[in-house]
Amino acid sequence: AGAAMASSLRPVLLLLLPFFLIALLHHLRFTLFYNSISTDVGRSRSGGLHRQMPQVRARAAAETLTEDVQDEAPRASIGDVVAHRIQAVDSAVADGDVNFSLNGEDAASDSPALRQAAIANGDTREYPKPTLSSKRLLDGSENWLPVPNAESDSPDDLAWRRRIRPNEPCPPGRRPFHVILTAQASVYQEWQTKIMYYHFKKMQKNSACTEMTGFTRLLASRGAQPDGLVDSMPTIIVEQASREATRGFQVINRPWTMSEMLKGDAWRARVVEDYVFVAETDHLILKDIPNRATPELNVAFFFPYMSPVPREQAEVVKRYFSGDHLTVQPVGPSPALMHVETLKKVTPLWLDLSVKLKADRQADAVFGWVLEMWGYSLACANLGIKHFVWQQLQIEPSATWHQNVSAEDPYIYHYTFGVEYSLDGIPVVGAVGEWSLDKRHYFGGYPPKNLEPPPECALECAFVWWRMFNEATEALGDEWNGHTLGGLTSFARAQGSGELSGPFVDAIVSSGPWVINGEHKPLLFFVRGRLHSPWGMGSWRVVGTKRVALSLCATVELEFDSESAPSKFSYTAAEGFTVRKRSGAGALDSAYVRAPVDGWDASHPAAKALIGTGPWAWAGISPMAFLANGVLVSPWGEGSYVGVAGSEDTVRVTFVGAKHTVVYEGCHKFRSVRESDGAKVDGWVQLGQSARHCQM
């Protein structure tokens, strides 16, 4: 029986023998290559480099073994791939193309050869064709997806990132990309670049499996002259665009420098990755950015102010794109991720259209400061290049938008808009705040270190930006060496006249709205000496019994009829005041009922907290005011409010026939729910532009 079994197994063993031999061969080759990484590599131009070569070669081998080698199997065995990558490292050392820091860690982002070794043989995965999303963007524009479930909580293209574990090799799936930071030679962009590069390097260091493997600053300068940062970061310098091309609009240097870079050879030596990410100097990297682009699909951010829907913008778009103008996506060239071949394809037309749009008087007037972004968007539309418009990629906060950074969880904070607040944390719209963090304050010099913190009631975005600035400038130490300008509280005059108190003040802020000369309304007085007028914001202060002075275009003095229950006033205007009448009168608006509304309780905690504060904005629309006896002033006319029994922070608000439950959250904010359908709205105190062209 045993002989019979052996006889029957012999053919099977003979069939399996080649596979055993192949496996043994691969094992031996791997062992030889792995052992070779610890051998002496001979004399090097640097003793430190010689000592560190085993670790470097081991890393190249280890990175190979942690990648998805099944994709490479048709072209080479595992041993061949390891050998190829170790050979690339050795060649880089022989050419002096590998830099090492003093602590023995390789500067991977500054070594094209080492990065090339890490991504040898490229990305061989198959990608589905871009999928048209069933969801439209906010303006109704189309969106295209890299994978069908790209908008889900667990998209397939990010599955590999969910398998990342601390202190373990990176899972297969990484697709490295090269960050290209476009910049111009100026103090303004120099300090921004330092902060951006600091946070890039920090994120790269703290993300073991990052795809942000390379970095190059693409600098436009007069005469292609180097600046003070060329020794601090990898840089390619090109001659800046001519005045004829830019017509004074320097942002055209972005497509210009990209075009000039692609004509030369320097970028080929540096950009060894298959993908590029176009960044700007005012980008703060909050999280490790994943690569969601494909060879046929770019990734970009949705800019609502670039929609092809508005009539004026549509007219220009139709002249530069013959297809359906609504298919032109509202995106710009930064932040944007794309394949290198796509960058080479789009750049010439992007530059050409940007120059033509600037020379086009109508296009220049309509597109304004985003004209070059339209050049990119229109170039992509004409070339059939589609985008995955990924809203999470970036956030562009301001004190006005009321965006929640933590809730939106973006990868980039783009500080293109200033963050403006009063010292008590009220957002300022269309004007410079008493606390003002705006990059435009620092055209001619650096922001100082240790910037003043935002007011306690400021929104989260102010604290995020402030912390990231201070962290970078502190860490940069002596590298933060430019001439510094003023701090964040040195750019604007006070919003209001400060704390006011007394029975007369209480009577003024709880009464209203007021009408001037029977036609101009509303005039509203608020706590802290803030004043809302038909012409903009002003301030007021008490200057005598029943008398107040307004700072409103110029000084105007009002005298009321009563100190405890004012109902009318007379006024005189200072010399030089541009008014039709140097004197006149005002009175309470007769359209508003003054008797207490049903259920009014002046002692209710929420009513006491709201009365006299403001001006409030309902979903950004102002003014709204909470006055005595439950009188509510709204942008849509008269309303009322009463405290909700049993609560300390809730009032029931009625206006335009609808009832709302409003919860006062403190820090000049409330949250409203409409009782009929549950619609939610946020409200906040909001200050605006100072009064201009007063026509009393």
TrEMBL record:
Membrane topology, record value: Single-pass membrane protein
Domain Hydroxyproline O-arabinosyltransferase-like as annotated: residue spans: 177-478
Gene Ontology MF term list: glycosyltransferase activity
Transmembrane segments: 12-34
Main location: membrane
UniProt signal peptide: none
Annotated localization: Membrane
A Pfam family reported for this protein in Swiss-Prot or TrEMBL: HPAT
InterPro entries in UniProt: HPAT-like, HPAT/SRGT1-like
GO cellular component, as recorded: membrane
Keyword list, A-Z: Glycosyltransferase, Membrane, Transferase, Transmembrane, Transmembrane helix
Entry-linked PANTHER family: PEPTIDYL SERINE ALPHA-GALACTOSYLTRANSFERASE
Protein's name according to its UniProt entry: Hydroxyproline O-arabinosyltransferase-like domain-containing protein
Gene source species: Chrysotila carterae (Marine alga)
